[in-house]
Amino acid sequence: MKEQLEQIRASAMAALDQAADAPALEALRVKILGKKGELTAVLKTMGALPAEERPAMGQMANTVRADIEKRLEQRRSELSAQALQAKLRAEAVDVTIPGQPVQQGHKHPMYKALDEAKEIFIGMGFQILDGPEVELAEYNFTKLNTEEGHPARDWSDTFYLAEDSSVLLRTQTSPMQIRAMEAMKPPIRILAPGRVFRKDEVDATHSPMFHQIEGLVVDKGITMADLKGTLETLVKSLYGEDSVIRLRPHHFPFTEPSCEVDVQCFKCHGEGCPTCKGEGWIELLGAGMVHPKVLENCGIDPNEYSGFAFGIGLERMAMRRFQISDLRLIFENDIRFLSQF
Ligand code: PHE
Q: Residue 230 C-alpha to ligand 1 middle, in angstroms?
């Protein structure tokens, strides 16, 4: 029996040294120390030994078992250290390899111009509003004093989304005037930038989708002078202190009186040049005093309150701001163009 135990120890030690991984170790443990293992089998024959030999053999068996277990444990930690090393090697990153340069993007010039305008109006106490691009004809036209049958409501100019002409892609940001007046009480000072849609062919100055910035102020005692002062502040901040604006009489159904506002050409200062097509002035926006009917449509008493509104063409404003000559450049997303700003 002594030889058998020695034999088991020797072959176990050799096998453990050879074990290549954790599953192999576990298989060996079962094979040697398990219930049906080699060592257990030897111990079961213990009963056949003479009584005086049993204690010594028992002790030896225990020592053999302890030795094997100790070696098993050693191997286990050796193997797991090896596995960790292998994993670390496999996952190693060479931090000295030069990286791929990342192309740094930046804001589109039109949104830069919009951000500047927002800053200027926020400085004057305006609140920025957002509104739906799919709009009710009620808001886009009717409540803006543009009754059914008005030429502006023609199907040839507007993208209608309902057979009965009740829903459309907004043709202007002016419905935000109504939404603002319905949602809040005077004093109101809001700026509502956003996309608008018209059935226009694309050319150097037209696009079926473009952007406007709607402005609305309603309070007691608001006059045309407030409108002019506000727009002058905008234009001087955007285009420089020496900028000059002029107000030309115009017609909009929802303002009375109405005007168009031009800025003096920054290239020729009013002389007339190719940039302003010889006019000396460049049209920038439409504006006027909010029509009393529009105030009434929104439950505001025109005898108590008055207001002004304006609608700026955002692309046009950005084109002036960055001296861009063709509207299509704004939408084409050509990186060679955009990276200049
Ligand atoms: N909504 C008008 C347009 O699209 C512009 C405008 C806005 C005019 C507000 C007056 C007041 O042309």
A: 16
Q: Give the Cβ contact number of residue 57 at 10 Å.
A: 19
Whether the per-residue pLDDT at 205 is higher than 90: the answer is no
**What pTM was estimated for this model as a whole?**
0.71
For position 61, what pLDDT does the model report? 85
Q: In angstroms, what is the span from residue 215 Cα to ligand 1's centroid? A: 9
Give 203's contacts (C-beta < 8 A, 6+ positions apart). Answer: 327, 328
Q: In angstroms, rounded to a whole number, what is the distance separating the alpha carbons of residues 16 and 10?
A: 10
Q: For residue 173, which atom of ligand 1 is closest to its CA?
A: 1
Mean pLDDT of all residues in 288-316:
97
Distance 313 CA to ligand 1 centre (A): 9
d(CA 6, CA 29): 17
Residue 241 scores a pLDDT above 90: yes
Host H or E run for residue 328:
helix 327-332
End-to-end CA distance of the chain: 92
State the average pLDDT over residues 133-157.
96
Rounded-to-integer distance, Cα 116 and Cα 136, Å: 30
Report whether residue 174 contacts ligand 1, using a CB cutoff of 6 Å. Answer: yes
Q: Whose CA is nearest to atom 2 of ligand 1?
A: 311
Residue owning the nearest CA to atom 10 of ligand 1: 287
| 32 Cβ neighbours under 8 A, 6+ residues apart | 8, 12, 38, 39, 68
188-197/127-128 β-pairing: parallel
Mean pLDDT of the 269-297 span: 92
The size of the chain, in residues, is 341
Kindly report, residue by residue over 125-142, the tens digit of the pLDDT.
999 999 999 999 999 999
Does the pLDDT of residue 154 top 80, yes or no? yes
Q: Is 311 a pocket residue for ligand 1 (Cβ < 6 Å)?
A: yes
DSSP 131-191: --SEEEHHHHTGGGT--TT-GGG-TTTS-BSSTTS-EEE-SSSTHHHHHHHHH-PSSEEEE
Alpha carbon 259 to chain centroid distance?
Answer: 37
